[in-house]
């Protein structure tokens, strides 16, 4: 999605971006939370708010690349520099290297001014020299050998361990494609609410409200927003419940679970109800869905979303799933398990830097325990679907295979027909016939996601 962006922005916007970046990089603040808090209280124009968001998220996301380039022009490593100077250099380098719409002179002038305010005249001179050299030598930087893990990790700004893992598991070409996708601007997509309007009607309503959007060429319920300069929440079509903001990979849960009108459905780890409400739409708002999550604030948002969308069959329950004593009385059970989120690293700029292999490995045991509880709630002949938004076989296929080992009354069930509208390649289509669907980030223009469908005998 393209947002309307000023070609220059204002010094005030860049100073706010610096202050937020300092909080994130020097004090450990979460980028999305810090941005939301600071922008909510600012008097900046919508264009300047967009600029601040892009500078902060881009600088955090690409920090490994930025630091490597900046170190080419610094006498001592960037991590040894004055904290304000290094973050001024980072955000300025990001604007020069990745935001072509901003003139280099504006970037340098504002950086020098900020350095005078935050540091000293001497460091302002250092800042000026480094940025001018970086601009002058652009296109001449010598990166590590292109066939190395180091090159991919630096160029695409990702942890070395993750790059190596993906190259080992999926091959270099697929890994590089994933790394590229995870640095792209997130595509804003909407799922039309079939209880209120069809997709054509929603597109017409959006157009009347000045939103440029098109029907997704892949997902039948999806609308892709191409340009907007206003808040979605302020739109009449939003207030009337005609759509729900959801990424396309998550929209597949509906057809893979395939709930029918009148059925009893259990949605575990439901979050704020994106997939839950889609199930209700597919059931024509007939039957019953118990949606369970550990966090009370998510259940409150779930209920708000259901009300806006006109969904009345969902019962939101705040509960620790591992404390549930399930009874096999549900036609379909869906578990959207807590995971490492490696398939959606593009959605939180700092998430890639907060992941550790040891912590991810611990998730495997939790996922197994949750799936065991989920499996006990399914009626004989019923369907169980396990899902994550990660790309990690230990959290995906390994969890499902372990469950099947100890639950012989379950069998994997083909899902290729449910997703026949997807342009799957031969390998992915064959896996779907077996009951697995792994969407590598960007492969079909969507985020990374995993689904496995099983039926109880």
TrEMBL record:
Binding positions for S-adenosyl-L-methionine per the UniProt entry: 293, 320, 336
Transmembrane annotation, as ranges: none
Domain SAM-dependent MTase RsmB/NOP-type: 178-457
Record-level GO cellular component terms: cytoplasm
UniProt main location, coarse: cytoplasm
Record family assignment: Belongs to the class I-like SAM-binding methyltransferase superfamily. RsmB/NOP family.
Name used for this protein in its record: 16S rRNA (cytosine(967)-C(5))-methyltransferase
